[in-house]
Every structure is written in structure tokens, then in C-alpha cells.
Amino acid sequence: MLTEVGRLARAASRKMANAETKTKNQALCSLAGLLDQSQETILAANRLDIEAARASGMSDALVDRLILTQTRIDGLASDLRRVAGLADPVGERFDGTVLPNGLELWKQRVPLGVIGVVYESRPNVTIDVAGLAIKTGNAAILRGGKESMHSNRILAELSQKALAQSDLPAEAVQFIDNPDRALVLALLHLHEFVDIIIPRGGEGLHRFCRENSQIPVITGGIGICHIFVDESANADKALEVIRNAKTQRPSVCNALDTLLVHRAVAPAFLPRVVEFLAPAGVTFRADEAAMGYLSREESVQTAGPEDFDTEWMSLVLGLKVVGGLDEAIAHTNAHSMGHSDSILTEEDSHAARWVKEVDSAAVYVNASTRFTDGGQFGLGAEVAISTQRLHARGPMGLRELTTYKWVGKGAYQIRE
Amino acid sequence: MLTEVGRLARAASRKMANAETKTKNQALCSLAGLLDQSQETILAANRLDIEAARASGMSDALVDRLILTQTRIDGLASDLRRVAGLADPVGERFDGTVLPNGLELWKQRVPLGVIGVVYESRPNVTIDVAGLAIKTGNAAILRGGKESMHSNRILAELSQKALAQSDLPAEAVQFIDNPDRALVLALLHLHEFVDIIIPRGGEGLHRFCRENSQIPVITGGIGICHIFVDESANADKALEVIRNAKTQRPSVCNALDTLLVHRAVAPAFLPRVVEFLAPAGVTFRADEAAMGYLSREESVQTAGPEDFDTEWMSLVLGLKVVGGLDEAIAHTNAHSMGHSDSILTEEDSHAARWVKEVDSAAVYVNASTRFTDGGQFGLGAEVAISTQRLHARGPMGLRELTTYKWVGKGAYQIRE
Question: Hey, are the CB atoms on A244 and B415 less than 8 Å from each other?
């Protein structure tokens, strides 16, 4: 059954690759309009998912991720209209040259082809991915979580309707409408028809995809993020950056997890960190050296052996004293997941070494780690944040859903 | 055991990533010098492989792929010196911007990290890959074929010696010195330490890697290449291009496999193709329509059902009559492996549709398919020819052994 889904997606992707920008944008606006018109139907389908989730004893926090509201649907529609307004990367030419024999050669940006997306509860991903795939001329095969099956089904149907309304192939967005988990594995093996797998979810999902896929997987979305406060950092400004990175939205992957502090400034600086962040609800896990400068109070605990390998996703902050730049870089490369890491320093040579030697998707000098985001980086849209190294690293925008072909235009040249 | 190899490679890759261009080039020149000085030792090791291969009953053609000669070793050394002279892609900055809040943002090219290369008999791959890895600041884990184990071992040892002579980590080039096939599988599962797998060999090896790897694999090197002779093509020039694409080096992946001829010109053109190419030893597999225009002679046979899905690697050419551009594109997309396909036409609108709609790594207008090659494309060096779609498509040069990191340089900016 999935082979047929794949075959249809491949055929649709060829048509999508040749679609005009105008037509693709029209489909996006149609879909936005259908979301507006179908709010009642969508909310009714969503209620079925929510009731089933509650009946199964799902926690309120998890149920919350399933919930669509009028406001959330409005948000999806306005996102689609915004994506319609972005530049179309397909067709861009680059790296052009003329070979000595006169052959004109360039790279031309084309869609990736067929994108397989495996995601968990949030049904907004269905519209999000459908919209980005349509914009970039790709086909998408969507495999959402069982718990949002009703919501995903109606959202996928609307996507197909919008495609058909613009004379684009409805099969460019397909939804695997069957909760059997074996189908996830089948999708990961469909290399003949699927060009890339993008997991959207937790670490377990990413690992499952990486370990089982015969198709390249974009893994990411998990970060153990560091800030290193160097001896020369401006302490007042550093406190603001640390508070921002830790507390502005603690549940996301670019939030701060571990603060490294230079030994020379640790005695004065660490108590100020606790004083500045504790009122925001932050609690601390301090290594032995850091504990030496802090009074043991409710918010400060000694760090355990796993604490510097933990993505907190909450208002917990690891504190560690380091001897200097070398130790800061070594600790970061050993414990970071390669997402986002920042140095706070007034010393240019230290900044340069941090930038060069810290092996992460985003490295910062004197800035919050919270900037690692497609919207913040001006990409217009965000597909995923990649922490693997091939194809794309860090925030992926529309362009990262494309590849290129080489085009050679000649006058009957032959190879000598 | 392989975990330790991986751990050492990862550590070495961090040092290689920070190495100066000058130092890396020095290591390449050291290696070239060591090859010059060690010819006797290399040839002695190579003789052990050749004797074992002959004793095992290996065919002369396969044994030939194992053989190193003084000339071949000289060639390897001069390739290394040439690579030393190429520009270093590491450190290049691109896509720079300044965000509205003043944060300077750019992408900076960095090595991929650790490259796993799985290859078959040819021992030259050892030096080839070692050289490209050193140049691009990567570490490489090499897994050559059992049949060239002695040759590979000495070549890997010389690579390590050259690294050490330049104060670079010897572990940046590691060779899996054990013929146990289980180690290939272990390498493909070493995702913690290996960032990319590049198979160099036949279709079976590529399939094995794709199906078993937990690390992204660059598949490629296999092409069923097409030329479509449109109604408007210049017949005389077309014959030269076809002969070049088929006969200049028939055993390689960018050689022509299938010739598609527009129905309107088939009656006159097809007999000329046979007349022009048969003297070069070419034999033909013609579909029924093409047979109608050809006399059944020794070199012309009726095509069987698999013949248009065969990479010939020899002086065989498939011939097929098509109704026009639509059928030519549809046939090509259905039967090509996405490597290299060319249209011969004087009609710009047909050329444009071919370029847009044929979904291959390299698409040509009025040129031989034989140009798909890193050297021909001016890339300076060729790592592989990719027919998958992520990261790189078509010929991969030095730059394709790199990725990027995002660098954000600020003045204590925080996210609002």
C-alpha cells in the first residue's frame, strides 16, 4: 500500500517541480481560505482526538499539544499567506561558468523531490509541512501521530483540495491514514520514492528514524546549549544575555542548558547569576568548584553526573567553573549536541578561537543562544533545525528543501 | 574495536579542522615524497595482493584493478601535489547579513568531520581519499577490499607518517586493517563518530551501504545515460556527439546507454547511427520501431525487455524511437538513474523543457554526456559523483567535503 503512495508522490513531485510560482502561491492561498471556511469541521475532528486522548488517560500537558483553536487555525492560515509572499527558490541559477571548450555550465535550484515527514502529536505540522512543500515544488508524505489522526486527516484533505483547485496534483500532499506503526518503518525503507526524511518530535523519534531509515534523515531539534563567560566579559550585559537564553522560552532547543564561568571571575560572578535568575524561577545544578562560591540554598544543588549531558527544557541551569578558554571549548565540544553555543568576551582572539573550534551548527560571540531560529535568521520560514552535518546545518528555510541540477548548454561539444 | 577507531578519528578531525592551509598542504607534499621514496615497498606489498588474487582464481580483468605500477604510483604522487595547489574551501564565509538588531550573521565553511569510505579492489583509492580528506581538514576511516589489504595497509601507513611529519594527528587517516566483513556493518552503524559514508564501487556496494547505514550515504557512480535526438538536431554534429558519448570511454558511468530518436528523423538518422558507430565496435539493441528502419545485421539485435534499464559499461547502445519531446522526457525520467542525460536540438523551447523536466544530476543541451566529471567541470578534484539528492548532486569536489556553521557576532544582543 505504501509503495503506491510513494509512486503517486513521485509522479506528483515531477509535476510540482514544473509548476509556476504563481500557481503554487495560489494553492497556498486556497488552502488558507479553506482553513478559514472549515473551522467548524476542523474543530469537530480535533475534538474527537482530544476526547480519545483524555479517555486514554493522556496528561493535560500532552493533550494541550493536540488542541486546535480558532486562534491557532487563524495562525496557520496567516502563515500560509506569508509563505506565499516569500521568494521562490526554485529555478535560481548559481555557480555559473563557461568551460574552455565553450560549454556553458551552471547549477539550477530544483525541488528535493519527495519529503517524508514523521511527526508526533501537534496537528499544525500537517499544514506547516504541506505549505512549505507546495511552496518549494516538492511532494510530501505525512505520517502524523495516532493521537491526532482525525485532525491530521481533515487538514490533509483540505491541502489536497487546495492543490486540485489550482490544477496541481492532489497527491503532492499525502497522509498515511492508518495508525499501524509498521507503516513508519515501511516509509523509512521507501528509498525508491522518498528523497529525505524529516522527523519532527523528540529524541526517541529522531533516533528511530536515524537507525532505521534507508533514506537520508535530517536529525536535529535537540540542543544542550552552552554560554561561556570569559574573564573579560562585561558582567552586567552577560547577566542579561544569560537570563534571556535561559528564561525567555525555556522549553525550546536553543535555550541555555549549561553556563561555563572562567575561574578568575567565578567568585564574583556566580553569586550574581543566582541572585539575578532565581527570582525568575531558575534553579541551579552547580559543579563542585561552583558550589564553593555559592551558598547552599533551595535553588542551588550540587550537580549530578548526568547533569551536564541533559537538555533541561525547563528553568534548570547547570553551572560549571572552567580554567579558561581551552577547557570551555573542550567541555562544550564534549557535551553540546552541536546546536548553539555562545561565548561572552571582550577578547577578540578568544572570540575567534571559539568561533573556529566549537563544532556546533550555530556559534555566537556576545549574543543569546535563542537566535538560532529560521525566523530570527531571516529565512522567512523554518522547516527544521538540523544538527547533522550533511546538506544543511542549523535553521533550514525554503532553500534547504531544494537541491540543484547541473545544466550544461553547448554547441555539440564532445570530450577530447 | 571500531568504536575506538571512531573516537580517535573524531578527536583527530577536531585538530584537522583547525589546521592551517599551509600545514595541510605540507602533509600532502610529504605524502607525495613518501610515495616517491617507498615505491619498492609499495610494489612488494602489492605483489602479495596480486599473488593471492591469482591463487584464488580471480579473473585477469579484476586482477588488473589491483595492480600498482611505478607509473601509477607516480600518478598518485603528482595528484597529491596538484591537490596541494588547489584553493582550500575551509574558512570561506558566505550568505553574510546583519540582522535588524545589529547581530552580524554569516555562514562559514568547515570540514564535514569524519568521512567513512568503503571501497573495493583499487588501492589507489586509499591515497586519493587520504589526500582529499587532508586537504579539506577532515578525518577519514578507510575500509578497502580484502583483496588489496596489503597494498592499502602500506599506503595508509605512509599517509599517517606524512601527517605526523607535519604535526597533524596520524589518526586523521585510519585504515580498518581486518578483512572481517562484519566491520563494514559496524562502520555503517558508527553514527556517533562518522558523519558521512562514501561507497566507491559497484551497485551492490552502494545498495548495501544505503540499506544498512545509520549515517547519510552518498550513493552514485551508476548511470543509465540518454541522448535524445530531436527533430531539429543537426544530424552530422549529432553523430559526433553520440560517438563521443558512447565510445570515448564506454566503461564509465557517464557513457551513453540509450539513444532516443524523434520519429520524424528516425528513418534517415538511425541507419546513419549504425553506419557511423558500428566500425568502432558498437552493437545495438533496437526497439521494434527502430528495427523497422534498420537491416537486421550482425551488430543490430532486437532489444529485450531489460535492455532499456541496463547500464551497458561496454560498446552496446540501446536505440528507441519516440514520438517527440514528451515521450523522450517521460522515457528518460522512467529509465535514467538520474546521472547524465542530453538533448540534441535546435529548438530553444525544447531545450528549455528538457533542462527543466529531466530530473537528473546533469542535464545537457547539445553536448556529450561524458562531461559529467569533477575534472571536466573545473572542480579541481573529484570525490564521487552523487546521484542522490541531498547535500551534493553530480560531481563532488573539495567543497562538497565541507559543511558550514552559522556564526553570529554581536554586542550582547538578546531575543525580544
Answer: yes
User: Which of A367, A395, A414 is closest, CB to CB, to B240?
Assistant: A414
Q: Domain holding A34: CATH number?
A: 3.40.605.10
Q: Each residue of B19-50: pLDDT tens digit?
A: 999 999 999 999 999 999 999 999 999 999 99
Q: How confident is the model at residue A120 (pLDDT cuts 50, 70, 90)?
A: confident
Asked whether residue B383 is assigned to any structural domain, the reply reads no
Q: Write down the residue that cell numbers 572570540 correspond to.
A: A351
Residues A101 and A52 in one domain: yes
Evaluate whether B28 touches B134 at the Cβ level (below 8 Å). yes
Question: Which residue, B234, B258, B284, B280, is CA-closest to B342?
Answer: B258
Distance from CA of A348 to the nearest CA of B (A): 11
Write out chain B residues lying below 8 Å of A412, CB-based.
234, 237-238, 240-241, 344, 366-367
In contact, A135 and A15? CB cutoff 8 Å: no
Query: Is B363 in contact with A407 (CB distance < 8 Å)?
Result: yes
CATH number at residue A339: 3.40.309.10
3-class secondary structure, A26 = helix
Q: Running DSSP on this structure, what letter comes out for residue A87? A: P
Cell (9 digits) for B410: 554581536
- Stated pTM of the model: 0.93
Q: Which of B211, B345, B371 to mutate to test the interface with A (most CBs of A within 10 A)?
A: B371
Same domain, B172 and B259: no
Nearest beta carbon to residue A363 from set B245, B368, B407: B407
Q: Does B241 touch chain A (CB under 8 A)?
A: yes
Whole-number percent of chain A with pLDDT over 70:
100
Q: Does A17 touch chain B (CB under 8 A)?
A: yes
Tell me, yes or no, whether B376 lies in a domain: no
Chain B residue whose CA is closest to A387 = B405
Residue-range definition of the domain harbouring residue B248: 225-371
Rounded CA gap, A361 and B406, in Å? Answer: 6
CA dihedral B48, B52, B54, B55 (to 10 degrees): 140
In whole angstroms, give the CA distance from residue A226 to residue A217.
25
- A121 and A102 in a common domain: yes
Residues A164, A33 share a domain? yes
Contacts of residue A355 in chain B, CB cutoff 8 Å?
108, 407, 409
Whether pLDDT at B381 is above 90? no
Looking at the complex, does the CB of residue A260 fall below 8 Å from at least one CB of chain B? no
Residue of A224, A197, A194 whose CA lies nearest to A210: A197
CA-nearest of B274, B321, B322, B320 to B300 is B274
Count of domains for chain A: 2
In chain B, residues with a C-beta closer than 8 Å to the C-beta of A357 are: 14, 17-18
Same domain for A210 and A150: yes
Are B125 and B247 contained in the same domain?
A: no
